[in-house]
């Protein structure tokens, strides 16, 4: 900067440059990580191939002709968390995982593979009960109802 504009030396001393480089820059990097990937680099709307072990809400969509396959497979396993079983099923059957953006699912369960601990206090909500998909809340109910009626 100083090579291009020597006049900046008067209002950009070395201390200011050092402050910007070694204090504010790391703080901005920390802030971007704290804000999260969804905030900083959101997925564009539509259907995209989901990375293996991606997170978090999972909903399965199968053609009606194939819906019996995963159903009988889940019943044969009889125990386990649905999100983990979904990953296992996809791996065993070499399925491609697809992500739909914006999300059309909301977690409403009281149990999850993440953790089921109560936290510090006995009457505090379990961790899964505190999960909330805020993007889901941006869906327009009337628009979704209209789209559903068009499909049925």
From TrEMBL:
Keywords: Membrane, Transmembrane, Transmembrane helix. InterPro entries: PGAP4. One of its GO terms (cellular component) is Golgi membrane. It comes from the Eukaryota. One of its GO terms (molecular function) is glycosyltransferase activity. GO terms for biological process: GPI anchor biosynthetic process. The chain crosses the membrane at residues 16-35. PANTHER family: POST-GPI ATTACHMENT TO PROTEINS FACTOR 4, TRANSMEMBRANE PROTEIN 246. This is Uncharacterized protein. It comes from Penicillium frequentans. The lineage of its organism: Eukaryota, Fungi, Dikarya, Ascomycota, Pezizomycotina.
């Amino acid at each position: 900067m100083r090579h291009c504009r020597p006049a900046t030396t008067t209002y950009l001393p070395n201390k200011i440059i050092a402050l910007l480089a070694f204090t504010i820059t790391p703080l901005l990097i920390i802030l971007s990580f704290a804000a999260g990937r969804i905030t900083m680099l959101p997925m564009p709307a539509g259907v995209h191939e989901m990375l293996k072990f991606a997170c978090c809400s999972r909903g399965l969509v199968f053609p009606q002709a194939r819906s019996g396959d995963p159903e009988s497979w889940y019943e044969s396993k009889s125990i386990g968390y649905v999100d983990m079983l979904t990953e296992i099923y996809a791996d065993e059957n070499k399925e491609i995982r697809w992500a739909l953006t914006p999300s059309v699912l909301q977690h409403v369960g009281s149990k999850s593979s993440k953790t089921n601990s109560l936290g510090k206090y006995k009457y505090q909500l379990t961790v899964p009960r505190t999960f909330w998909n805020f993007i889901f809340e941006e869906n327009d109910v009337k628009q979704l109802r209209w789209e559903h009626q068009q499909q049925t």
